[in-house]
Amino acid sequence: MKKHSLLEVLSASLKLGLTSFGGPTAHLGYFKDEYVDKRKWLDDKMYADIIALCQFLPGPASSQVGIAIGMIRRGVLGGVVSWLGFTLPSVIVLILFALAFQSFSLGDVTWIASLKIVAVAVVAHAILGMGKSLTPDKPRIAIALGAALIMLLFPSALVQILVIICAAIIGYFLFSKQAETNVRSFSLNITKMQGISALSILVILLIGLPILANLITIRYITIFDIFFRIGTIVFGGGHVVLPLLEQEVVPNGLVASGEFLAGYAMAQAVPGPMFTLASYLGTMINGTVGGIIATIAMFLPSFLLIIGVLPFFNELRKRSSFQGVLTAVNASVVGILLAAFYDPVFISAIASGADFALAILLFALLHYWKRPAWMVVIIGVILGEIVYFISV
Length: 392
Fold this sequence. Notes:
By secondary structure, the chain is mainly α. The chain is built from 16 helices and no strands. It has helices spanning 5-19, 24-38, 44-56, 61-103, 110-134, 138-153, 157-174, 192-215, 219-233, 241-249, 257-269, 277-309, 313-317, 320-349, 353-367, 373-391. The radius of gyration is 20 Å and the shape is globular. Its main location: membrane. Keywords: Cell membrane, Membrane, Transmembrane, Transmembrane helix. It is a multi-pass membrane protein.
């Protein structure tokens, strides 16, 4: 290994953190170009296996791929450096946006309303894309519809967790026999003892943090608890974090619905992982320190899961029952996102026919003309301003 390879990891990941627009799927394309094709740090087979692992785990898949590649290059410290480079640019932008939102009363600015309309188009586009890949048959469509109906009738974070658990049970019995049997092997120099230790820390924090947050009324502990739990249980990538976060911070009065959607839309306009929405929300709740704590809490489960699962990955992937569970969980995620599309996204953003017309146009740019999300955000803000001045 080269003497300065940690700097190499930081340089490569920072480049990606500054340029990787377009969401998790696009991120994986950028990663392949940088890490596999240009730098040749790993081959296509290893890269495909890492993606498969991260798709199986809760949390931000593209960030986890970057963390895993960093670990391959320089161990756990390499994973930390890789995450910092990829994540820090969007963290800084979203924290600054939150501070500006609070300092200059941006909630009353017309372009914030346009950002909410952009969120309508982006979530609708995500639902269609995820539905196509994750609910290709009637049984999985039924699971998605059931999840959506339950979440619309009983909207809460607890119900959402129960929906995911029920989907996992259904998947175990319904899809295990259909699972892929020809699974590639995967190897990485992390011991099973290290993996067990990481998973133990994860379980201890997942159980202990809610208890601690109830016993000690300190805002920083509350923030860490909320974002750590979400980072541990969210399946399906960036867009699915929307309903989980919304259920945790909006009903409790930590963040207003309009503030939440403005941050979500801004997260579309910056490169890097959408999970840095946590940076914005933490800052809105308790300033810059709150933003930093929320960011660490949101991504810490990814580190613990990657370290914990890698030593056991070969055996786990080959189990048809494990694949069956994930098949149904992924379908339920589509339904959860569909419910979130109605509340809070649609009802908080669409107040007139002009708003809906703009949302349709932005959706068409994303879905049919394949424009990147950051470009759609800019177009949405400009057109929103034009519509506002015309209607005044």
